[in-house]
Amino acid sequence: MMNQMETTVHYDNGYDEYDYMMQEEEWDRDMLLDPAWEQQQRKTFTAWCNSHLRKAGTQIENIEDDFRNGLKLMLLLEVISGERLPKPDRGKMRFHKIANVNKALEFITSKGVKLVSIGAEEIVDGNVKMTLGMIWTIILRFAIQDISVEETSAKEGLLLWCQRKTAPYRNVNVQNFHVSWKDGLAFCALIHRHRPDLLDFSKLNKDDPLGNLNLAFDIAEKHLDIPKMLDAEDIINTPKPDERAIMTYVSCFYHAFAGAEQAETAANRICKVLGVNQENEKMMEEYERLASELLEWIRRTTPWLENRTPEKTMSEMQRKLEDFRDYRRLHKPPKVQEKCQLEINFNTLQTKLRISNRPAFMPSEGKMVSDIASAWQGLEQAEKGFEEWLLTEIRRLERVDHLAEKFRQKATNHENWASGKELILSQKDYETTTLTEIRALLRKHEAFESDLAAHQDRVEQIAAIAQELNELDYYDVASVNQRCQSICDLWDKLGTLTQRREALERTEKLLETIDQLFLEFAKRSAPFNNWMDGAMEDLQDMFIVHTTEEVQSLIAAHEQFKATLPEADAERQAILGIHNEVQKISQSYGIKSSFINPYSTIATEELLNKWEKVKQLVPQRDGALQEEMARQHAHERLRRQFAAQANLIGPWIQARMEEIGRCSLEIGGTLEDQMTQLKQIEHVIIAYKPNIDKLEGDHQLIQESLVFDNKHTNYTMEHIRVGWELLLTTIARTINEIETQILTRDAKGISQQQMNEFRSSFNHFDRKKNGAMETDDFRACLISMGYDLGEAEFARIMMLVDPNATGIVSFQSFIDFMTRETADTDTAEQVVASFRILAADKPYILIDELRRELPPEQAEYCIMRMPPYAGPGAPPGALDYTAFSTALYGESDL
Fold this sequence. Notes:
By secondary structure, this protein is mainly α.
């Protein structure tokens, strides 16, 4: 009868239910012959039932008697299932008891268990075997059936769980649920694996099974709330302990520890989510700090670059140029790196937020990447205009200084010439002179008028120079204008003094002709003297040139002047001959008159001295021109030296840019291969920096030499600087893009093959090869990848990849979309579920529970940010973990 019962009692729950039950048929037959097994089952099943019945405030003493009326059996089923059974019959008649037991059996059957040969009458009659079989069926259904490890269930799942948990322990080899547990080490290993604080496994002895078993049973009862269901002596004294008893007791360990593991898993998930949130917040704070510092630097620097107040002197403008060079060499490059790093940090942060399903980071007002880029653009615009203005001002001041010095020289010469002329012209000495003296005065006045006409050009030159100084905004233009006005006023006054000439002409009729030789001397010496004055002035005239051709032009003009010297010397000899003739006549005819020429103020000694001065100035002018030619040759060498380097560096920078572009578009290798290539390129770029520094040094020499043009190259230092900064920024951004792709790939579990497929698809539909797809190209790409797109669906996708409606889909946006489509990530619902486990299914969680289940840092993080729970029935201090979890993913207003 018992064999038949044991081989036919099973239940159907939709699996290949418990095929092992049929395999146990042989064990069951043996059990029927072994009273020890029945005794073990009786003790174990009784303890198991009481572990649940005590929750309802009752227990059983005798398993076959206490279930006979069906009341405690129905109560047991209600406790372990959490469901209400039909109201029991309260009568004490046999049919009342049978009715209650039938209600219990019907409930068991409703749970998918197919009962065969177990009837209510056998239970009511106190049949031990049937009662134990029924309890075992209940244990299987409610304590063991739901155990699942790697798609195995029930007995196999429980056995696999035991094997895995005890695998690291010596002398423990769990192969079954009977003899593998006799020495007690397997029970101790299960406890130590989950609660190492409760026992020291290294001190256990395999030869002390009684001590091992009692230790495990006592610890389980005291610390794990698992009642003592087995007797150590029964297990040791039985050759093959009862499998059902062992399984029942071991299942209690599974449920005790599985709950703890579930709570630990939930806590780990929460810690992971909170850790990501804390790291993101730190990155946000760091971005805000760096952005504020960079914007403040731009705010301070831009007004300085926009200031166009000119300085008065060349040295002050040179100092401004040196300050600007320091800005370009020392102050700006670190800020270029900071700006690039800020963009990289922002992109990395946004990628991490997308990967973890967090809302995008929105910086404070005015601190967006676009705001920084706009401010930076304004800075560079001001910088470009500032450098152009500086060079223009230096050229202007150079010209102004030259003209000012030229004005002073010409004005001084003219003033020296005009000194005393007004007094002479206003004298009335002719009223008391002799006829000869009168004629001399007349001729002297004619000579003065000739000299006055010759000085007309000089006065006009002085006025022209003063006008140009006004136009060039010379800082001391007031004194220049005053001096020029004084010269012009005197000139006008000298030109209007005709009264003296009229008086001399009236008196001339009364006088005899003066000595023609003195007159001829005066007429010829005055232009010659004026020519020498002009020659000396020209020979001492300062010049400013920028090319060898201009110097050569000055040399040619000087050579032409030197060619006129023989003719001038002949004129000098002729003038001296006149003077000698006067001396000869005077000596020949015994004239005792003064040898001072009455018609001219020019003495022969003055002509001789000026001629010697001219002869000295000619070689000096030769030397000055040759020095200037050498200087211009040196400038030309600087131009060629700069051009040679610039013509190499410019194409080199372009080649590296193209190499970076090719590397970023390669598909064949892995992202790590691309990263390696880019790092190598970055190393090459960094190693090339000394060439840029050397070119900067050559450029500084050129500017210090005031060389402003270079016909040997189309590259300026500004071109090279902009290209170099763009190269540094491009390699850093490209490396960051690859790092972001690696981060996305690893976080989302995307394979390298998938990443290559994404890139291949993107490159194919990137028609313009500019790193972006237009809307129609993106639609065609999705269709080629198997998407069935309607207008509404495509509009939804475009909102994800192009939130600003630019009509362009970047590669990063494409990758983010594809990874969202192909990978799983933590969600707000998962975090809520994890908190619910820690809160024991309550809709709120307490501060003590957070501190008990989470590490201190994460626990305090939650306590500081989690809002109070506003629902009904919550104790003081209850916190709302649902609102907190949704806020982490941007799904609430917290």
